[in-house]
Amino acid sequence: MTPTEAGVLVSEAGGEARTRILRRLLRDRAAVVGLVLVVLVAAAALLAPVISPHDPNAVDVANKFAPRSSEHLLGTDHLGRDMVSRLLWGARLSVGATLVATVGIGLIGLVLGMLAGWWGGFVDGLISRVIELMQALPPLLLPLAITAVLGAGLRNVLIAIVVSSWANYARIVRGAVLAERSKPYVEAARSSGASTGRIFRRHLLPNIVGPVVVMTTLELGIILLAISGLSFLGLGVQPPAAEWGAMLSEGRTYLSRAPAMMVYPGAAIFVMVLAFNLVGDGLRDFLDPRSRRA
Amino acid sequence: MVPTLLGLSFIAFGLANLAPGDPAQQYLTRVLNQPASQEEIERVREELGLDRPLAVQYVDWLGDALRGDLGVSYATRRPVTTEIAHRVPYTLQLAIPAALLALVIAIPAGVVSALYRGRLPDHVMRVASLAGASLPSFWLALLLILFFAVHLSLVPVAGREGLDSYLLPTLTLALGPAAVLARFTRSTMLEALGDDYVRTARAKGLTARLVVARHALRNALIPVATDFGTRLSHLVAGAVIVETIFVWPGLGKLTLDAVTERDFPMIQGVVLFGGLTVALINLVVDLSYTLIDARVRVGTKAVAA
Amino acid sequence: MRPAARRVIAALVLALVAAACGGGAGDSDEGQGQRAQLNLNAELRIGFTDDQYILEGPDANLGAYPANANIVETLVYINDRYEVVPRLAERWEFRPPNTWRFHLRQGVRFHDGQPMNAQTIKEGLFDRVAAKRNGGTIRATPQSAVVVDEYTIDYTASVPNLRVVEQLVHPQNGALAPGSNHGTRPVGTGPFRFVDYRPKERITVERNNDYWGEKPLVARMTFRFYPDRNARLLALQAGDIDLAYEIPRDDVAGLESRGFTIAKSTVGAYRAIYLNAHGEEPYDILSDVNVRKAIAVGIDRQKHVDGVLDGLATTDQTFVPPSALGASASLIRGHQYNLNAARSLLDNAGWRAGADGIRVKDGRRLRLTLVSGFPSAEVIRPTPTFLQAELRNLGIEVEIVERPDSASFQDLMGRKQGDIFIEDGNQNDANVGFLPILLLYTGPGSSGSGVYQGIAAPGPRFDQLIQPALTEPDHAKLQEIVATAMNEAITEQATVLPLNGVYRIYGMKKSVTGFVPHPSFLNVSWLGVGVTGG
Questions:
Q1: Which domain, by its residues, includes C456?
Q2: Which residue has the higher pLDDT, C349 or A176?
Q3: Which of A24, B123, C22, C191 could form a disulfide with A286 if both were Cys (CB 3.0 to 4.6 A apart)?
Q4: Claim: this prediction has a pTM higher than 0.90
């Protein structure tokens, strides 16, 4: 989403946006499919310990590269571990990590964006400068560099991603706040003596929820790709953890011998990101049905 | 732009100093390849000026950087600037064709999609671009390798040898940005067309429609150009994943190697360079924006008259 | 169909198509049978691992190490039985107390026309090595080499060194033409001349038509660097290269079924774990020899070789290649897999099974850190994960820490921050005692960096047993000394636990003939390798 789009969206959204959203959401089949997929994967992730047919770390080298069977619905990997179980637990890890990162980015971005948009002046100048700075860096570069400093591992990768990605978020929030702030009803509230906190809660927040939610949903896909990407490069999750990006990396080693090892985790990531994007797109369309942007 | 660059240099410098380990000891054992006795470490520390306050070190480093001296790589023991300069052309050899390919795919697709909104071409394009934007590049690369290089043996698997080795990496690099650009082109095109277009379509028939379309296109392309600039700069600053999978000796792979080997002078250099590239390309895009803008204004006036 | 559903189905079809196309036979390369006709104008394209050439300073080694393009030659050479044989030196003798006299081959010229004789060997070999730190492994100084006559040269190391001849086998000690630069344009006496080098990409050499020995059978060789072994393997399958080093074991069956040839060397390397017997908290659990022995008998090496390595390794526990130890190899008893014995050892050491299966003693969990990274973590996979599962059976929890390269691996080892260190090591010179002394010996005359000793030194008895190896001139006796000492280290002290013996596996097209893999991959000779067909 670009500033242009977000700005337009913000000006369209109103308080009744939420109800409109829900109703129309259910009418857009694509978004519904996306939502169903997200719910399914989330359920799989939550229920993995219960529904997983095997221990994802159960090594059985005698049974490696086993073909699909009733015992192993998607076969086994190079160490004889069950693919289905690893995919399920991978959902847990991947989705869980994505959520944690998104919450982190969301919180920092929201707070800083609101501060910048509301207070303006020096605070805004400073925050905007930092945002500009962060955006001047190519996408994977800063996470990579931070991982070099902190070392590999999921926790460090999450820190790196949060530190690198809050800027985009903050910028959108700031834009939304700026647009709302100049509206007459806000002026009215201020002149009638309402406290800043009250204005935030009753007027600003409800109206920026729309674009923020859309942004978050779309960010989820980007963050999942970033986490899987860094794990693929060997910097994130450490063995033997089952994470889709790491599984893809292992699959790459056996590309010619057992392509399935590479295909399934990759498909899982693809489907998940697709689902997030479908939902996000659907949400975005409702906030500005006029031009029905893709 | 200057404050941005300064801030960038700050980040780059800060990274190395946040890292664990003693830079003097690292330099001694990794660059000079000598054993590290305490006295030698102290001596090197003094020599390199690492015992001075950080602020002074930063200014010094910045001064050196402006003159093109970014220090010596821990891994290869050669100047960082030389290594980067050596690798940049290889990355450009992928980035520029990929960016052009993305444009060639995205703009017509986006335009057609906007013109035929709601009908089959639009739906096809929207599916394709959604899929394209959701595809993990590392998965796409491996799938392409599996099909075209391993099963069909049409192109080499990896490495930079022969013209056909450019095909898969360029394709992989281009598809993601192409999908995003296509979507974006569609939306700016629709915006530019606006309601006028719908009305004209019903009333005046094909030729008038095309004229309106052409004008709309010029307006639509401006924001697209800006976005394209961003895409291009991201591609140049190193498609780490693609270069790793295809073992392409470019900047992205250099970055990853530096990270895994904890080669801090190199990481500093790459961060600085990456940021610089983005800033430069954005500058160029902004300048060309004003050019296109001027012409569009003139053009519209001419038509109106 | 509704647009929404269409979108999703299209996307999912992509995924399904991808899944369906898994497996299946690829093209077989060079489908035609071998034709006996050698193509003497052929270019041999070789896929090597990564480019580790040093291009500057006294350690510069372009073209020599680790990718040996046969540009420079050493005075002596080791065959695949680790026996020292003549090369640029025809014969040699030891002159007490510490001098070796070499009689050089006559009529040999460097690629630039200079004659190879005592003077040029002094300048281009011994003096060059003297400029390295400590004078290199042979401990040379500028005064060490003395020209006796045109083809006779004396060498006296700066310290008593009876192993000079074995050490001179190493490609780092090659004869460079005086005045040439080993980092940019090496000039040697070898069967191939340097043509071109593109860092991290490739190095090209061409046939030396004036070579003193039998002429090479190919006109050119290009070594391409593929640090990523998948890329290397895939390059071979796709026909980008004719021969590939270090084929991953898992891919051997697949390659053979596709019509490629696999060549295996004898054992020249090992995969072993070093146990930190001298660590401090929290890495002090393995200072108890019983816990170490429990680990030693609690790992099923056969399963590792059969399951993880596809049977493409040996279960040798000798650490030094058995062929190098000769008859004395049997002196190293090693450990027999016995899960119950392992468990009782741990029980008796006070480690009792806890609620989740992990053993506990005095409130402390039996948790070990396994560090992997020599030569790189990638090469060693998936053995660490396998070990993790094996040790879990014993009630030991293992955390795996991977390091991308040897420098960072040895850094951790040097700081003793780990319990188990796993590596793939090589035996590259004929000196049987080289590795044990370098890595494990702590007595007088020790020349190692102390990093390995710091964690895995087997102790005073080992030092006592191996010390005579420093001064033993008789090869058979040397073998016996080393084997006895290694038995102490492996069987009695269990600080070094070899998991398997490693042999080199090379893959190549059927058209490549005459390639004899050398157990020490640094000493590959490309003479006799030819390419058939048009």
A1: 269-502
A2: C349
A3: A24
A4: no
